[in-house]
Amino acid sequence: MQRRKTLTQYLIEQQRENNTIPADLRLLIEVVARACKAISYHVSKGALGGVLGSAGSENVQGEVQKKLDVISNEILLEANEWGGNLAAMASEELEEIHPIPSTYPKGEYLLLFDPLDGSSNIDVNVSIGTIFSVLRSPDGADTTAQSFLQPGSKQVAAGYAIYGPQTVLVLTTGNGVNCFTLDREMGSWVLTQPDMRIPEDTAEYAINASNARHWYPPVTRYIDELVAGKDGPRQKNFNMRWIAAMVTDVHRILCRGGIFMYPADKRDPSKPGKLRLMYEANPMAFLVEQAGGKATNGTERILDIQPQQIHERVAVFLGSKNEVERVTGYHADSNAG
Ligand SMILES: O=P(O)(O)OC[C@H]1O[C@](O)(COP(=O)(O)O)[C@@H](O)[C@@H]1O
Ligand SMILES: [Mg+2]
Ligand SMILES: [Mg+2]
């Protein structure tokens, strides 16, 4: 019988044979993966575990927290507090950063996460996930919020877990993208899709079209052309998918290509789009680029953006290279005109 590689084996191989990750980063990833396993357990219990519905509180973004947002956040904080490899954490669900308490061993990495992405899907049993990003602290273990404000190109690891028909963990440490499926009986993550690649061309796009009246002209131009299909300038039909959980929309793109968009729009210029740069867009952009795709905010590469705040928002266009280049080019055309 052919044995498949587990996450642990894969990481040890990366550390020892390929020398691409240090031991402390390997251990950090293992702790995050263990926390995702625990979240998966709670998600799978649903109504039986009493985990559905609202927590009756709001997060820093003014969004109503679901019970699973809070549970997932606590699991990640607790698991990683004593992992020994971190200086501090930042989360969608926490206004301030969370330094590792002085009573615990500290490391020099920073962990950022969206503990539960796609919260509106929780109560209707549609796939949701956890997104994470790892940076090195420029200030060692003496970390402040400022230490986190590094462009996404500085990430040393990023990934996500999806709690869907299967629970999967998708990971990059800057050496390609690999997908591991949780074997519940064995309790291990098993490598099931090595070296994921995004095709350069696609006929599938994802955008929340209910916002169409608020879009800026380059987005309207691009989407109008896709919708016109064979009868329009693209002379090709496109299909649309929207899961309302970035994590799952991006997973589909890593599996079979496509373009995902959450543009800035005319409603509130202080909010460029809905998605958060540091724990949604950056990790996804790192994964997408590692799989041969592209990720921009319409004008520049997402991974080059210098963050000003941990919770800042950003417009997102990511996925199949040729489509992302086209819609980014439409932004350049409209700026030039
Ligand atoms: O369909 P909508 O409401 O426009 O927004 C969907 C987007 O909002 C998000 O769910 C935001 O994530 P959270 O659930 O972590 O707040 C994205 O994952 C998704 O792409
Ligand atoms: Mg999210
Ligand atoms: Mg969330």
Automatic annotation (TrEMBL):
Principal location class: cytoplasm
Record keywords, A-Z: Carbohydrate metabolism, Cytoplasm, Hydrolase, Magnesium, Metal-binding
Binding positions for substrate per the UniProt entry: 117-120, 208, 274
Pathway connected to this protein: Carbohydrate biosynthesis
Listed EC numbers: 3.1.3.11
Catalytic reactions of this protein: beta-D-fructose 1,6-bisphosphate + H2O = beta-D-fructose 6-phosphate + phosphate
GO cellular component: cytosol
Superkingdom to which the source organism belongs: Bacteria
Annotated cofactor note: Binds 2 magnesium ions per subunit.
Boundaries of every Fructose-1-6-bisphosphatase class 1 C-terminal domain copy: 198-331
Xref: InterPro entries: FBPase_C_dom (IPR044015), FBPase_class-1 (IPR000146), FBPase_N (IPR033391), FBPtase (IPR028343)
Cofactor(s) in the UniProt record: Mg(2+)
An annotated GO BP: gluconeogenesis
Limits of the Fructose-1-6-bisphosphatase class I N-terminal domain: 5-194
Keyword RNA-binding recorded: no
Keyword Magnesium set for record: yes
Residues given in the record as Mg(2+) 2 binding sites: 114, 117, 280
HAMAP family named among the record's database cross-references: FBPase_class1
Family the UniProt entry places it in: Belongs to the FBPase class 1 family.
Matches recorded under NCBIfam families: PRK09293.1-1 (NF006778), PRK09293.1-3 (NF006779), PRK09293.1-4 (NF006780)
Quaternary assembly: Homotetramer.
Protein name: Fructose-1,6-bisphosphatase class 1
Species of the source: Chitinasiproducens palmae
Gene name, Swiss-Prot/TrEMBL: fbp
